[in-house]
Amino acid sequence: MERFEEIEKSIVTTYRNKIWTKFVKGIREFEMISEGDKIAVCISGGKDSMLMAKCFQELKKHRKMNFELVFLVMNPGYNEMNTQKIIENSKTLNIPITMFETDIFNRVVNIDDHPCYICARMRRGYLYEKAKELGCNKIALGHHFDDVIETTLMGMLYGAQMQTMMPKVCSTSHPGMELIRPMYYVKEENIIRWAKRNDLEFIQCACRFTEHYTKCENRDGSSKREEIKALIKELRKKYENIDINIFRSTQNVNLDTLISYRKNGKTHHFLEKYGKKDSKNVE
After folding, report:
1. Chain segment 163-182, per-residue pLDDT in tens
2. CA distance 72 to 51
C-alpha cells in the first residue's frame, strides 16, 4: 500500500467519527452538492484545505452522486519554499492540483487600511474567476468548525454585530457561482491530529505580511483571531461545551428578543410592532 493510500484509509477508519462523518454531515445537512456540479476545491496549502481535498476524493469514490472536481491552487505570491511545499504535499497526497499565479501580495503590501480584509476579498475574487473559467459552478473553502465560532465571537466583540460564517452562500459578484464550506462541522483539533498521525507538515499562514512585523497584528504581536482562539480555550476549561453552545446560538435566534435586526438590507426595530396584537413583547 502506497503512503497516500494509508493516509486516505486513516480518514475513514481512525478518524471516521471525528472527520469523515462530520464532513459528510455538513454536505448533506446544508445540501452543498447537487447532481452535475463541478466544484473547484480551493487549496491554500494549509492542513484544512488539503484534508478537505482528500475528503472530496473519498466522497467521489462512493459515486452516490454525479459531480466533478478540480483541485485549484492559487499562488498569490508565495515564496519559493512555500510554493514547493504545496507541490510536494500534493504529490504525497496524490492530489492532481491546477495551480495559477496572481500578484495579490504585491498589490496589497502597501495598503494600510484593513489589508487582510482586502487581500481575502481579492483572493476570493480570483478563485471565483478561475473556477468559472474552468467550467465550475461552485468553489469549496476549507473553513472548519473553529473558524465558524471564532468568526461569530469576533463579530460580537470587535464588530458589534451578531452574524456567523454561513455553510454556503451565493456569489453576488459572480452570478451563477456558489461558495460551500464542507468542513463546517470538523474541529481543528482533529485536523491537527490527522496531520500529525500521518507525519504531514503543511504551510502555515504564508502571507507576505506575517513574514515580517505585520499590519495584521495588534501591538503585542497577536491577531484578533488568535485572541479569540485563546479566549475560547480558556472558557472551555470551565465550560467543556462552550464552543458547541456558541455554534448552537446561531441556530436558536429569537427575533422577538432583539432590539433590531437586518434582513435583505433593511433594518427592523422592535418598536415597529411593539404593543400591537401580534407582538411578542409581553411578559
Report:
1. 999 999 999 999 999 999 99
2. 14
